[in-house]
Amino acid sequence: MANRINIKKGLQIPLLGAAEEIIKGTVKSEFVCICPEDFHGITPKLAVKVDDAVKAGTPLFYEKNHPDMLFASPVSGVVNAIERGEKRRILRIVIKTDSNEQYEDFGAKQVASLSGEEVKKSILNAGIWFLIKQRPYDVVASPDKGPRDIFVTGFDTAPLAASYDFLLKDKEADLQTGLDALAKLTTGKVYLSVSSKTTLKGLLDAKNVTISEFNGPHPAGNVGVQINHIKPVNRGETVWTLNAVDVAIIGRLFNKGITDLTRTVALTGSEVMQRGYYNMVIGTELKQIFEKNVTEGISLRYISGNPLTGRKIDGNGELRAYDSQVTVIPEGDDIHEAFGWASLSPKRYSAGATYLPFRKKFRLDARLMGGPRAIIVSNEYDKVFPMDIYPEQLIKAIIAFNIDKMEQLGIYEVAPEDFALCEFVDTSKLELQRIVRTGLDLLRKEME
Amino acid sequence: MKALRKYLDKIKPNFEEGGKLHWLHSTFDAFETFLFVPNSTSRSGVHIHDARDSKRTMTLVIVALIPALLMGMYNVGLQHYMALGLEVSLLTKFIYGFLAVLPQIVVSYVVGLGIEFIIAQIRKEEVAEGFLVTGILIPMIVPVDTPLWMIAVATAFAVIFAKEVFGGTGYNIFNVALITRAFLFFSYPSKMSGDQVWVRTADTFGMGKGTVIDGFSGATPLGQIATTGAGSFGEFTFQGITGQPLSISDMFFGFIPGSVGEVSTFAILLGAILLIMTGVGSWKTMLSVFLGGAVAVAVVNLFAQNAIMEMPAQYHFLLGGFAFGAVFMATDPVTSARTERGKWIYGFLIGLLAITIRVFNPGYPEGMMLAILFMNAFAPLIDFYVIDGNIKRRLKRATPSK
Predict the structure, then answer these.
(1) Domain range spanning residue B276?
(2) DSSP letter string over A195-241?
């Protein structure tokens, strides 16, 4: 029987715009762009030049300190452009796609007959190692050292998030193969967390893993929260983290012998007219699914990911590497709302009770709804932070960059996404995720 | 509103970087954000935000204070006309009290906000809303006859030395309104305590002229019991300003001499309900102050030697600033303990100390102010030990028992 854990703290933001569970089609774009900045914690070194022909699975670049860690092209085609920014940092690698998809052949393999080292090599070589992240620091996992344990989250509780049951429906075999592969990578255990609401057999009956069942509001689906409840990360320990959708991509590599970075993506948000799911590879330009399908006449915010942790993109932006969700909400910069502090408007949403709950679902825009202040209200973060950590004190330690305090208060256990809800409810409108990200990066530099 | 928006958009460039009125940027921003919700959108992190901001929070505290303020104003008029032996309408009493208190509110806001605006301007920051609450608290906790210049001096002192030198709203160690009161208390004791300051007997803008009747005494109930010669509580009766006995209901609804905010426990209760329902004030702090008070009263009752030591808990809670302090002062999130467990300890000790000071210091029957200020200083220490528990747990986990 699975170990059942109830999460009480947290918040399910009642947003309008969940996706209908229908596959609306497959999206192919003329150009596909990969942004190395998506892969946090690596220094990219190019492996291709402009005009090079690539197949799906051909490395586009590799990690400077781990030349065997490759990053695959998701499509076959020709490298069209390499855009660089300040200090020649690589911003985007643009590939012009072929009409007929060709894959690098890595050969289908039986995971059971492989050693841990061989599994690791296969994943690195196929250019999809980036799907594995690590704590501490929340960066692409370092392949040098095996992790204490591997944690896989089997559901997403973020606002409007895609349903994993739906995403993984036909991929149960790949999921199991992926989990088997992960089990080879650690001397510890592979922990799979599933939602108490899931009905998918592939998750509920997964083999070779320790299953924990989680029940509760967001961020129950965050792997960091799950680790904190199952077996917290201590100083000096490393664990690897993934989500079940990415595990299935790894499984596909072993089952089919190809790098297939196709994701099923939920198109969500209050400003999308026809909401649903689309199949596409990472890096696909999204303008085709936005065109004539979003509210017109107001300025919009396009997000690759969910409204809490996603990345802001343009209307002609692309699907980012880790996302199974695209969201469109109003930008709100054209709204001038009078006397907001006295407002009784039913359109306003607050997690606390400072506004009357007139509605069930809300159409929220990207406004901060206030000015930045010092931290004033207490116990605000704690209410949406279901970990055995004092979030406010940790944030203050990070701002002061007091390494001892940060370690004592549990910096190694957290990722920026764990603070997303704190940032949402924050009366002082502080950029908590940015603060945590900066803190983790500085700490990593200091420690390594 | 549209015309106003257009006007603001027209003059806005003057206040932006490079504009000729840039030095007034914080002031412009304060007024603009007061009128309109800022339309700046998130640049990093979450794309959506909760509608609650600092302004909303402070507004709710002020709304919660309004019942106590109105009841207090009415009581100022009530006590005044009682002292004069005049029968007037309820409205007249209220208007008298309103006119007596209004100048104090104006002075406190003008001085405090003036300093806040200037300092925000110098720091090139947005004007924080903290003083909106402090500014209304100050007139509510000082005697109604406090001269305006004293309020001005004390407010300026408190805002500068208790808040801005620490970095402004959110960084202060002591409750700013209480520092204002403490400053007045120690600088001008003759105007802050005794029998002459709690009932306004002079006229206000020509209203309510007259002479005080014979037998008038402006002593507060707590002042009376602290100085009474009665050997036990049973022999003692609380008296109103004309010598009439005071009932528990007089004390509950606030028809007793005292400062504006503290007299009506009923109105304070209404405010407390709003603060707790909206989650702005911590019910844990409020409850634990009363728990601490109850424990202290129980102990002193047990070893009672005189009338005040015998006084039962309900009188302690209804009289003086106990309830007001518990609901509006102890819950100030910045100066209170910030951890949930810490709040229980913090509140409990405030209640305990307030009663202790009341009972054992007859020269100063009002212990709430000192108790809260004292615990303000200890709040970080309480938090330190609460958080240390978490740190120890983490350390223990990291070093497996071999």
Answers:
(1) 221-237+255-386
(2) ETT---HHHHT-SSSEEEEEESSTTTTSHHHHHHHHSPPPTT--EEE
